[in-house]
Specification:
Blueprint lengths: L13 E7 L5 E7 L3 H19 L11 H12 L3 H7 L2 H17 L1 H9 L4 H4 L3 H13 L16 H8 L1
């Protein structure tokens, strides 16, 4: 028998996002997982945008026209699309839709980071310069040595192996 768990036991197949709507009420929008075909289509759109950015396209370059953007959001939101259009203003609708797109293409952790960053991607994941600066600081910080004048020899591979069993 295989050691694989049933996929539904650990992989979420929907996303529930709480949003304060235009009427002031907080509603939780249930976004079902897209079909495989729709998921691949959303993935393709995102990869096209990433490829354009990596090829040096100007930030103002339009990846999608307005109609294709709404079609992407309709695909990503699935059955939640009409309800979201009815109850949300554009900034909240777009934030919810982009969160769904990120959930589909990059997973729950990335979607959650985006959702909680107020839609500012640089807050969701620090940029390269910040990561490098943080890495340099960590490498330059000296660790305190033993105060007793003794040192602990590094563990041998046999000792590590014994500790794991």
């Amino acid at each position: 028998m295989s050691g694989f768990k049933v996929l539904e036991e650990f992989l979420g197949d929907s996303l529930d996002l709480p949003v304060r709507c235009a009427d002031g009420e907080v509603r939780t929008f249930h976004i079902p997982a897209p079909s495989a075909e729709d998921g691949l289509r959303v993935q393709n759109v995102m990869e096209t945008g990433i490829r354009m950015a990596m090829d040096g396209a100007e930030p103002e370059t339009e990846v999608l026209d307005d109609a294709r953007e709404l079609d992407l959001y309709r695909t990503a939101l699935g059955t939640a699309y009409d309800d979201a259009m009815k109850h949300l203003e554009w900034p909240r609708f777009r934030h919810m839709a982009m969160t769904a797109v990120l959930w589909i293409t990059q997973g729950l952790d990335t979607a959650e980071a985006f959702w909680n960053s107020d839609g500012v991607p640089s807050q969701a994941a620090p940029n390269r310069a910040e990561r490098r600066a943080s890495s340099r600081a960590a490498k330059s910080t000296r660790s305190r040595g033993s105060q007793s004048g003794t040192s602990t020899p590094p563990a041998t591979s046999r000792a590590r192996k014994a500790a794991q069993t």
